[in-house]
Amino acid sequence: MVSNESEPAKPQKSLLAKSEAELAKYQTRQTGNNCSFHAISVGIQLLLNYKIDPSTLAQEINRQWWRGKFMRVIPNWAVTPQMQVRIIQYLAESRNLPIRATYLKGTLPKLEQFLSDPTAVPIVTLVWLWGQAPPIYYADSAINVNQTNAAQGHTMVVATYDPQHFSGGNLHTPWGFINSWRSHARNLYWMSEEDFSRVWGTSLPIIGANPLVLLQSTQFNKED
Fold first, then answer.
1. How far is CA 10 from CA 109, 111, 181, 192, 197, in A?
2. Tens of pLDDT along 139-170?
């Protein structure tokens, strides 16, 4: 017998239970190919309230490349998810920060789970080929702000899952991201589940499909 009862609606989940406006304040506009450094800096600030300037960090990692510590493919260019883990480990050691990072093959249910974890920030990298850029929307606008025909990659912090969010009134876009395309923002950037899953699931050599870097705090507050 088939039940006519509909499934209960999923609850909204967001990093540290913060509102969209609160999360959007962490966004800063990138210059150059530095989206990974913005995402890492945001994650550390969220977890530890410790600020790192993304541009300064990018230049520091460039210098480390010439010293044989390869945390970018080449200076001023791409950072793979595995290199993001190395950067976070480098920051933990050089700044004595209570953080760690793990490279995982992610899933949408795992992302929802991590959004409920106050000690974790999920960082995803999307890679697309020519003519396959996924639509990305700012706030509740119907305007796609990712209109490019180029093959590219981009790293963002998964900030929220809101099953009630729509772009342009009728496009269901439940996945919200802290993105490095705007400073002094009041809103997040949003994607539909179909577009997000399609591009995140693109498998490339070395990177693989559904690349997820989980940034975690190792600092535990003990109650008296």
1. 11, 14, 29, 15, 18
2. 999 999 999 999 999 999 999 999 999 999 89
